[in-house]
Specification:
Helices cover about 15% and strands about 45% of the residues. It is mainly beta and about 170 residues long. The protein has one domain. The longest helix is centred in the N-terminal third of the chain and has 23 residues. It is globular and about 40 Å long.
Length: about 170
């Protein structure tokens, strides 16, 4: 009986330790949030942050000319507390999906009705706004994909590339 009790307690302790250690492991592409007020409108971007980990990103892991979910794991969402103009195009307040089509010399920023769910369910029939912007080089290597919302634009940065799109109150 003592052996059975001892074995049970040992197995319980092992399971408890495994559970505790498993909780300490950080996900490969953790969730992140970019928030800012642009021209009086609160802008919130919910996304997941993949890291380069020695890989070639732009033009390879993130192919040029193809729709990208603009992050990892799930659809990246962008929410505006008021009506805005995105690079001059009108957009009603609300929550949307943020997709992009990266290119070496030009990116397409896509605002889509699909604000959540699987990014693999993307449909261009749900696009609300599409604008073209020019990418530029970052001042230093960016290991982890980052989105910033502030001043007058939203900026995406990863590897050696950054791209921004202007937002004004609509």
């Amino acid at each position: 009986m003592k052996k059975l009790l001892s074995l049970t307690l040992t197995l319980f302790a092992v399971a408890l330790c495994a559970s505790v250690f498993a909780q300490d492991k950080k996900p490969a592409s953790p969730p992140a949030k970019a928030e800012g007020t642009i021209d009086g409108v609160k802008v919130t971007v919910d996304y997941h942050q993949p890291s380069a980990k020695g890989r070639k990103i732009m033009g390879d892991l993130v192919p040029y000319g193809e729709v990208w979910r603009t992050g990892a794991n799930a659809t990246t969402s962008i929410e505006f507390s008021g009506n805005v103009k995105l690079e001059g195009q009108a957009l009603a307040k609300g929550k949307y999906g943020l997709f992009t089509i990266p290119g070496e010399n030009e990116w397409v920023i896509i605002i889509n009705k699909q604000a959540d769910g699987s990014p693999y369910d993307y449909s261009d029939a749900k696009d609300v706004v599409r604008v073209k912007v020019k990418p530029s080089k970052t001042s230093a290597f960016v290991e982890t994909f980052t989105i910033e919302a502030g001043k007058n634009q939203v900026i995406l940065k990863w590897e050696n590339t950054q791209v921004g799109f202007k937002i004004t109150k609509g």
